[in-house]
Amino acid sequence: MSPSGTPISAADVAKVARLARLDIDEASVVHFTEQLAKVMGHFSDIDALDLSGVGPMTQPFPLVNVLREDVEQLCLDTDEVLAAAPSSDQRRFRVPPIIGLDD
Amino acid sequence: MAVIPTTASGIAAAIASKQITAREVIDSYLAQISARETDIHAFNLVTADAARAHADAIDADIAAGRPIGPLAGVPVAIKDNLCTHGIETTCSSKILEGWKPPYDATVVSRLRDAGAIMVGKTNLDEFAMGSSTENSAFGPTRNPLDTSRVPGGSSGGSAAAVAAGFAPVSLGSDTGGSIRQPAAMCGVVGVKPTYGLVSRYGLCAYASSLDQVGPFATTVADAALITEAIAGHDAMDSTSIPQPAPALVASVSQGVAGMRIGRVTDLPAGAEPEVIARLNEAFAALEAAGATIVDVTLPSLSYALTAYYLIAPAEASSNLARYDGVRYGLRVNAVDTNSMYGATRAAGFGDEVKRRIMLGTYALSAGYYDAYYGKALKVRRLIAEDFERAYAQVDVILTPTSPVVAFPFGDKVDDPMAMYLCDIYTIPTNLAGHPAMSVPFGTGAHGMPVGIQVLAPALGEAPMFRVGGSLENAAGGVK
Fold it and tell me: What is the CATH number of the domain that holds B154?
């Protein structure tokens, strides 16, 4: 059981895989659902804690806005960066079409 | 030929005083790598030619009377999730195979500026997610003390490299124990510094509020020396503490007379009996050396595992979104970008990375955020407050590093929860942002090494190294 009261389902796993841009097949969905349900079952231990009045802690130490002087500095070499890309064209990253492919 | 010292400090001193050359040192370590690396697989890449060239350059500087760095000629192995300019950096993942970063991590450039020579990039659990190095896409690292057993993880390659004599020191990263746990399992010293003491610039991010870079070494003094060399403010990391690196080596030999050492009376159960026996011997040794043992309670500690395995995957699911086949690494071609992302990430990530991405995505998703991620952040606060109360009474706290000694391959790889439990004593430190170190202290089951963990409050590296040094002295007397 999870804090929300229901164990993670295969439909949940298929949905989060889609949200996370991970193509997984049906057999993997079943496998991951079993493993994640077991892990999440352990998480119900914190249900017993009284957390009212406890503030969330996102960082070990409070973050502060860090600014530097607005002066020109060396940056990464464009050719070197593009050389590491799977595909580039006209000094830009080249990707497949984003829209316009619907039947 | 002169005898090559086994410590970083000994090597640096011998080279600086011209008793040996940097080339003799690097050739000796490269010979050791040639002899055993096939059995151990500590490295994803050995940079032998570059290392020899670097050593020759240092020897030329010395011959010409030019100034050299404090670590000149010291071989060092670098975890393969730290960026090295023009040198393949893979995070032991197929999704980054072949990637040559266009910049150096700050810790890498600091070590090079100090004269240290990189011998190679070490193997890890993919993206530092794991406790055994079995999750590497390029095959596991084997424990140099017993090659049928894991070296721990995720920095298993860095721990094994030092244990096998491939380098006197190495760098790892520690998000939930990934330096300390493999150090314990390989019988070497491992340090996770205070969050923000060491720059994370150029460390491939796993969980940004928990990640920290630190050293492995064969001695506590060497670990202090390397921590000094990599610590201190870095403008490239917005969470870097704006202070210079502290002096730490002197602390190692100061002893523990008058120190208050915390013993956790409600320590989560599950440690092997031999591990608990070594812990009790460690307390006795420190008491004999003049410290006072004080009982403390950390009631929220048992909830740390849940908090960690919600917070770390949540941060990972966001951090690893960058691996999408657009700017670097693997791309699986498809008709449109969305299909390309899904196919690339499915082919490029291993199962444990996929599990954590999905877990994190779930914990952050609409309807579940408050129940999981939000709750975990509150538990994190409780744990930090527990430590705060304890450190009002004691200078440091002693626990085991790992509940178990190094286990055989395959033991836990299909049971994620069993694997996660290996981190039960190391995780709380990362949640609080505190420093901690593992010091080898005798052996446990199957004659495998046991590590004792010294925990200290934020920026408490000096008292931590004092206790670490005393434990090292006492360790000679235990079985």
Answer: 3.90.1300.10
Radius of gyration over alpha carbons of chain B, in Å?
Answer: 21
Of B330, B346, B420, the CB nearest to A22: B346
Our CA-based measurement puts residue A19 at a distance from the nearest CA of chain B, in whole angstroms, of: 7
Task: Determine, yes or no, domain membership for B141.
Answer: yes
Do B55 and B117 form a contact (C-beta atoms < 8 A)?
A: yes
Distance from C-alpha of B75 to C-alpha of B80, rounded to nearest angstrom = 16
A75: left (phi over 0), alpha (psi -120 to 50) or beta: beta
Question: What percent of chain A is predicted at pLDDT more than 90?
Answer: 73
Task: Over range B224-229, report the average pLDDT.
Answer: 98
Q: Which residue in A has a C-alpha nearest to residue B420's C-alpha?
A: A39
* 3-state secondary structure string across B14-70: HHHCCCCCHHHHHHHHHHHHHHHHHHHCCEEEECHHHHHHHHHHHHHHHHCCCCCCC
* pLDDT band at residue A2 under the 50/70/90 scheme: very low
- Are A45 and B302 within 8 A, CB to CB? yes
Indicate whether B258 belongs to any domain: no
**Tokens for B280?**
């009790």
Question: In the beta sheet, which residues pair with residue B325?
Answer: none
Q: How far apart are CA B87 and CA B47, in angstroms?
A: 9
CB contact under 8 Å between A32 and B317, yes or no, is no
Measured between alpha carbons, how far is A24 from B299 in angstroms, rounded to an integer?
A: 40
For residue B187, give the amino acid letter. Answer: G
Predicted complex: ipTM over 0.95:
no
The answer to whether residue B394 sits within a structural domain is no
Domain of residue B45, residue span: 8-251
Total structural domains within chain B: 1
Query: Do strands A88-89 and A92-93 pair parallel, antiparallel, or not at all (unpaired)?
Result: antiparallel
Tokens of B266: 């409600």
The model's pLDDT over B295-314, given as tens digits with 9 standing for 90+, comes to 999 999 999 999 999 999 99
B89 → chain A, closest CA residue: A84
DSSP β-bridge partners for residue B440: B451
The whole-number pLDDT of residue B428 equals: 98
For residue B264, the cross-strand partners are B296
| B34 CB neighbour count, 10 Å cutoff | 12
Q: Which 8-state DSSP code applies to residue B371? A: I
Mean pLDDT of all residues in B72-93 = 98
In sequence order, which ranges of B232-289 are alpha helices (DSSP H)?
A: 273-288
Q: Which two tokens stand for residue B217?
A: 């070494």
Q: What is the mean pLDDT of chain B?
A: 97
Give residue B21's pLDDT: 98
Residue window 54-93, chain B: list those with CB within 8 Å of chain A.
none
Q: What's the CA gap between B233 and B83, in Å, rounded?
A: 19
Domain membership flag for residue B353 = no
Gap from B410 CA to chain A (nearest CA, Å): 16
Q: How far apart are CA B448 and CA B429, in angstroms?
A: 24
Cβ distance B306 to A80 less than 8 Å, yes or no, reads no
